[in-house]
Design a protein that fits this description.
Shape: globular
CATH architecture of the largest domain: Alpha-Beta Barrel
Number of helices: 12
Low-confidence stretches: 294-299
Number of domains: 2
Largest sheet: 8 strands, parallel, barrel
CATH topology of the largest domain: TIM Barrel
Radius of gyration: 19 Å
Number of strands: 8
């Protein structure tokens, strides 16, 4: 089945970007900040909070990174101006991590300083495994200077439980996700249940050590596991939230919200939507299959 799914996703990658965009736009707010503001307002009206993300990663020049920083600052200004209930997520490689670590630290420090002035929060996303150590090193350095910063950990990486044991000592605020980048079997769990088991093991450790966690998943099995932990351990509502992607399982999103749990939606936007969309398709081959069938039905 995996071979078939990979083949379907590979086919979708060969399609014109305009065709992919027709189907991918459900999962991105749009190409402009105004689009993202509209989406976040709609979510806030339903009692759901957000984190906004300017799409883009792995930039190659300092000029591109500086432009990305300016966009992030504009997002924070806009959140404040429109009184949105949203924070900001960002990718270190978009801010210069693979160009110059100190440069990246300074860029993100400027963003955190702006967010601090607005009493807002910034989440440092985790990317693929070649950047894991550098991202955690960057986060720990930022954490010494700022309290309004959080990290992301990925349950499919075999190292993550050990990372969390260390990060818990620092009072780290987490987003816990399964992970979406394609990684070698030597460092990543490949079986679905292995990833689920590790996810719940990590989540329980975070809860037991009293850290805040964004439970980022669309998996009913993991959501039930989280519900069970919350009830059994009597976890207060100010120690966790559920996080989901924009456009994914909206009925489940609304149910969690109706159950009285805080829900935060990841709202990506921007011109660099293509790579993000392809990763979503790799995560959900059924959507890629739907696109494939639709293309052939039009031909």
């Amino acid at each position: 089945m995996k071979v078939i799914n990979d083949a379907i996703v590979g086919f979708v990658k060969l399609l014109p970007r305009s065709v992919v965009h027709i189907f991918a736009k459900k999962y991105i707010a749009g190409e402009t900040l105004e689009d993202a503001v509209r989406v976040v307002k709609e979510l806030n009206e339903k009692g759901i909070v957000a984190t906004m993300d300017v799409l883009g990663e792995s930039v190659n020049t300092k000029e591109e990174s500086e432009d990305a920083m300016k966009e992030c600052l504009m997002v924070l200004d806009t959140i404040n101006e429109h009184k949105l209930d949203s924070n900001l997520s960002l990718k270190p490689t978009q801010l210069g991590l693979i160009i110059d670590k100190q440069f990246c630290f300074e860029q993100i420090s400027a963003i955190l300083e702006k967010a601090k002035g607005y009493n807002n929060f910034v989440r440092i996303d985790m990317e693929d495994s070649p950047t894991t150590d550098a991202t955690l090193e960057l986060f720990n350095k930022l954490k010494k200077k700022f309290s309004n910063v959080g990290a992301v950990v990925q349950a499919y990486l075999k190292r993550t439980y050990d990372d969390v044991e260390e990060q818990n000592k620092l009072g780290t605020n987490y987003r816990l996700c399964k992970g979406i980048y394609v990684e070698p079997v030597e460092i990543a769990f490949k079986e679905r249940q292995q990833v689920r088991d590790n996810y719940l093991k990590i989540l329980e450790k975070i809860f037991d050590d009293g850290n805040y966690v964004g439970i980022a998943t669309h998996d009913d099995y993991l959501i039930k596991g989280a519900y069970d932990f919350i009830k059994k351990k009597n976890i207060p509502k100010n120690k966790y939230e559920f996080q989901m992607l924009y456009g994914v399982k909206e009925d489940l999103r609304d149910k969690i919200n109706a159950d009285g749990h805080k829900v935060r939606i990841y709202v990506p936007f921007g011109e660099h939507w293509y790579k993000y969309s392809i990763r979503r398709l790799q995560e959900n081959p059924q959507l890629a299959w739907y696109i494939t069938k639709s293309v052939f039905s039009l031909s």
